[in-house]
Amino acid sequence: MKIRAILTIIISLLVGFVFGFLTSGQIRKQEAMKKHKYSYHEMFVYKTLGVIEPGEAQKDTLLPIIMSYSEKTMALKNKVSCEFDSLMHQMSLSLKPYISEEQYRKLEENEVRLKQKYRH
After folding, report:
1. pLDDT by residue (tens digit) across 66-116?
2. Is 54 helix (H, G, I), strand (E, B) or coil?
3. Share of the chain residues as helix, strand and coil, in percent rounded to the nearest 5
4. Whose CA is closest to 44, among 17, 62, 22?
5. Which residues contact 27 (CB under 8 A, 6 or more apart)?
6. What is the DSSP letter of 39?
7. Residue 48: partners with Cβ closer than 8 Å, 6 or more residues away
8. Does the model's pTM come out above 0.90?
9. Distance CA 119, CA 88 (A)
10. H helix intervals, the chain
11. Cβ atoms within 10 Å, residue 66
């Protein structure tokens, strides 16, 4: 009798953990998808309007201004990113004569990882 009760409790706990893991994963996936649905420009406008909290009449006036700055900030972000990539590559080439092949390979892998991380 006691074994049956203990087994029932253990099975209930396991089922609860499984449902918890599945639910948590689905919630995280949905939150991530919400963030990835917006382009840089849309997110910039959304966040800026969220800070300002304009009325409907103000939105019509402010939206073109915010959009123009959205384009400017995106251009600047791309420029800085390209310059950063170039600088990192120059550093790698400068270090190459002084480090081993294994160290250089690790440096290149890190460079690729950073590019992927900051491009998204």
Report:
1. 999 999 999 998 888 888 888 888 988 899 999 999 999 998 998 888 877
2. coil
3. 90, 0, 10
4. 62
5. none
6. -
7. 66
8. no
9. 15
10. 2-36, 40-52, 56-95, 101-119
11. 18
In whole angstroms, what is the distance from residue 53 CA to residue 58 CA? Answer: 9
Closest CA to 108 of 91, 118, 98: 91
Alpha carbon distance 109, 106 (integer Å):
5
| Average pLDDT value for residue range 20-34 | 79
Token pair for 43: 């997110």
Taking the C-alpha atoms of residue 112 and residue 119, their distance in angstroms, rounded to an integer, is: 11
Query: Can you give the pLDDT at residue 68?
Result: 92
52 contacts: CB under 8 Å, gap ≥ 6: 58, 62
> Which residue, among 27, 25, 29, 7, has the nearest Cα to 17 in the 3D structure?
25
Reading the block at residue 36, the tokens are: 């990835």
Cα Rg of the chain (Å, integer): 25
> Which position has the token pair 């309007």?
49
